[in-house]
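Final report, closing paragraph on structural work. Over the funding period we assembled a curated collection of sequence-structure pairs, and we close with a single example.
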Amino acid sequence: MDRNTFTGLFLILIILVGSTYLLRPSEQEMKREQQVQDSIAAVNKKTPLKSKTADTARAAVIPVIDSAILSGPFGASSTGSSQPVILENDLMKINISPKGGRISSVELKKFKTFDKKQLILFEGDSNKFGLLFGAAGKNINTNNLYFTPTASGLNVTKQDSSSLTMRLNYGEGKYIDYIYSLKGDNYKVGFTIATKGMQDVISTQHQHLVLNWEATLKKKEIDIVNETRYSTAYFKPVDDAVDHLSLTESETKEVSEGKIQWISFKQHFFSNVLIAKNGFSGGSLAVGTSTQPNVVKDFKANMKLPFTGQDVSYPMEFYFGPNKISTLEEAGYDISKQVDLGYWPLKYINRWVVLPVFNFLEGFNWGYGLIILVLTILLKTVLLPLTYKSYLSMAKMRILKPEMDEIKAKVGDDNPTLLQQEYLKLYKKAGVNPLGGCLPMLLQLPIIMAFFFFFPNLFELRQESFLWMSDLSTYDAFFKLPITLPFLGNHISLMCILMTISTLIYTYFNNQVSGATGQMKYIGYITPIIFFGVLNSYPSGLNYYYFLANMLTFAQQYLIRQFVNDEKIHAKIQENKKKPASEKKQSGFQKRMEDYMRNQQQAAKTKDITPAKTPGKKK
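Its predicted structure, as stored:
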């Protein structure tokens, strides 16, 4: 043992011995403690205490307990009953705990989790809700204090309403109230914070009360990875658009610019929203990924409420309910904007075109498998003119391919600029737009991509079955894998397989129509395989739509082929070649390409005739 170690141990020994001597109870304290223990033992044995010593002990117990309870601000509220008060209507059952006066759990009666259990939005000690402020030189968190409930009509029907006041007493005429109200057939809970006589209690140094809200949201869907992908904290500034924190990483964000209308702890298909009717004066939001089993994400908010030192009232509302767009729109305040329908212009296509048509079809009370089928038929019917133009243009390019091959053999690959010029001359003579097959496909692409956001966020598909698919809002695990593979996970989706096969067949026939060769031909076969890896864990409803879209495209192309004759197209091309140049229409693209090629050729000629400069000698 070295000297430093020995010195340290010796000093620790001195401290232990000294503290034992200095902190030992006095003889008077030891007698008092003995009296307390004797009195407690006597009560437990139900033995009457007749001696003077026992009476002294009983008198000693009461002051000790009372001083422990009443010491410090809100001392009388440091203990209380934990029996929750229940607010209930046809849609929700809300437990309000006297500790913190907060909503401790919310059950949505009409919904179940993936394993058919009660759907409870949040519960447990990890969920907190309370005011943070300074009083009498101490930091107060009302989440840890006990409120006193007064209520009437707690069980309500569709036409009824109920109210509950949870009061945190400080003293005579000094208290904080949490006032809850609930109406029948509604996912909103009225909530008002009111202070009375607290201007001499609460420190006004920072001129704000901080409302702290924390929640741990647990798994409710079968695929927690997908559920996590669509869960995060949202917020809405009063004068700005809805915004959100990161969907993939933990993030803390200050939201102090202007007033904040509402904040939301959003899961994939359900939301917990707190609306401040007069706005919050800024604050901070945090979302964190979790390593705990069956936990989707952790949420935390610290929002500011202005406190001027007078009796104040903060009117608010909670929304606890499904992320069904029509239901969220009824709640107001743009809460529906937290449902991600894609980027511009995809969200406008979904919100103003796809969603109204879907809601219209839903009114027929059909199954959702049939609704998706009819929706796809209507969409493909609207896009039929573009499909026809695309097919016709690709057919023209296929017929011109022998002539293009001759040009390529004549010009060679050494001069790509000249080769493109010759191609453009051929297109111009034949009256063919080389982009005629691509442009209709590009116009359809935003609609195809819009569904990529529409179906995964569509609450209506949740737990709706069709054929072997038990839930159209998640993958159909038709084949279970003994291991977890990258991208694929631990399952294979049958509908995703059918979608991939149909896409490969579609690619094959599309190549036959367009005459694609080389790299473009094989890229068309690689892309569906990539999509299989991506879409295997996406909702079966989305894969079902893509499968239907492919099958309907086959049917459309078959019908178009009955009306389109290659010989007639070839004759039309030859007829166009004989027309004077003045009678031929030229697309803007062709004109720009000709100008570009002409400029490139002119630049090449200028470069060839410019003599090389030789350095001159200095005189």
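The mean pLDDT is 81. The CA atoms of residues 193 and 314 lie 5 Å apart. We thank the funder for supporting this effort.
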